[in-house]
Design brief:
This protein is 39% helix and 23% strand. It has helices spanning 21-34, 40-53, 110-124, 126-133, 138-146; strands at 12-16, 57-59, 62-63, 66-69, 76-86, 96-105. Strand 2 (57-59) and strand 3 (62-63) form a beta hairpin. Helix 1 packs across helix 2 (40-53). The termini are close together.
Length: 154
């Protein structure tokens, strides 16, 4: 599964201004709704509910909020580079500035997990993180994310 299958160029926010985790999730839910047929409020509530189970901040300034939603036509990705890092209650207690949202159909099963693993693998690469932090241009960010080739990709 390639990130190009999950992430459209219109789904990339180059410089998101959000002073809190909740505001970042709200803005990202708005973006998911804008690039899909999904309801913004439902997306936001699903992301918040998932965060209540435990932070999706995976460390090194990265968060991968995700949820399954009835009505999602396919797995949808939205990426944002935050203007300023925010406290995401991440595993390493570091603030987050790179956020990749995944919304999957309720029936996605293993595909949802494969997408999560793929996103995590790409974002965990320090070189990719440095490149993403080095630009706020949405087209460049999309290219960085979708042109990354990983061996043994699921």
């Amino acid at each position: 599964m390639d990130l190009a299958d999950l992430l459209d160029e219109k789904s990339v926010v180059g410089s998101l201004r959000a002073p809190t985790k909740k505001q970042a999730l709200q803005a990202l839910a708005e973006k998911v709704a804008a690039v899909s047929t999904l309801d913004e409020r439902q997306v936001f509530e699903a992301l918040l509910q998932r965060e209540r189970l435990g932070s999706t901040g995976v460390g090194h300034g990265i968060a991968i909020p995700h949820a399954k939603l009835a009505g999602a036509p396919r797995i949808i990705g939205v990426f944002a580079r935050l203007e300023r890092p925010v406290d995401f209650e991440a595993l390493d207690d570091e603030p987050v500035d790179l956020v990749f949202v995944l919304i999957a159909p309720e029936s996605a099963g293993a595909d949802h997990l494969k997408a999560l693993a793929r996103v995590a693998r790409v974002l965990r690469d320090p070189a990719v993180g440095n490149k993403l932090r080095g630009t706020s241009d949405p087209t460049a960010l999309h290219t960085i994310l979708t042109s990354t080739v990983q061996p043994n990709a699921a």
